[in-house]
Specification:
The structure holds two protein chains of two kinds. By secondary structure, chain A is of the alpha+beta class. Chain A has helices spanning 2-17, 72-82, 158-161, and strands at 20-31, 41-52, 57-63, 67-69, 90-97, 110-119, 122-135, 138-147, 168-178. The radius of gyration of chain A is 19 Å and the shape is elongated. Chain B is 27% helix and 36% strand. The chains are: A alpha+beta, B alpha/beta.
Amino acid sequence: MKKALFILLLTLSYSSFSQKYFTRTGNTNFKASVAVFEPIEATNNSTSVLLNTETGALVAQLFMTAFQFRVALMQEHFNENYMDSYKYPKAIFKGELSNFNLLKVNEKEKHTLTGILTIRGITKEIKTTAFLKKENNTLFLKATFIVSPKDFKIEIPAIVEKKIAENIEVSINYTLNEKE
Amino acid sequence: MKKNRIKFLIVLVISIILLFPFYKLIKEPEGIETKKIYSAYSAKDLLLKVEKNDTFWNAKIVEINGAITAIGKKGITLDGKIYCQFKEGLNTKNLQPNTTITLKGRIIGYDDLLEELKLDQCIKIKPTL
């Protein structure tokens, strides 16, 4: 009897630990373009994301140097002048999805995604609306939010100031699978 | 006749010099294929090296060989600890688990969230298909 209880407890604890969805190749994109000037945007297709499907807790992490720009020079300036990618290689988001229930994921339902974004060692609170979709054992998560270079004390030289938007739109598009 | 040719050459050289900055403004990032390899390592050695000093390895291009322990849609895991994301457009079909492979790729960093080293833009060196 004791043994059975032990096994039961063990499987229960194991199952609660295994309730995680993840990806290594999440898509994070930002647009800092100003109309009239050349588009400034980049995509990161190597974002790691971990979602605890019991609590809705979400952690996403990406490496700055993995942002791909269309123009080599822009990528160089982004890493060396603005983001200090060699000193601060990562951006991390730690947050939570509201009313998350894996069994009741519904395309039409809006979830609030709140959390802390850390870039260059500086934190900023993020609050936005996220959309979820579930197909078989795959979860799709989409959201957009706005940040500003000022939030992270990124100094932009006056000569290019007009070309870089004050409000940068970040969109996330993650396809998560169950983690064994 | 000869004078004309010299004139033409001078104009050509000057226009190349003048246009070069514009070329730099529109140039695409260099592809992984032509980038120089920093050095070649086995998966195990590279892991040990990066653990010691991970900022040094940021964005370094390396050749890496190891055993395939997992195969995903967009990349593979070597020796259970290194995730190699393939270059966009390449697929992981025709790869077999538990076989060895040599890749060229770019180190993007140690991912402490999933506890693995991460490379992107990987292309196959050996075996070639």
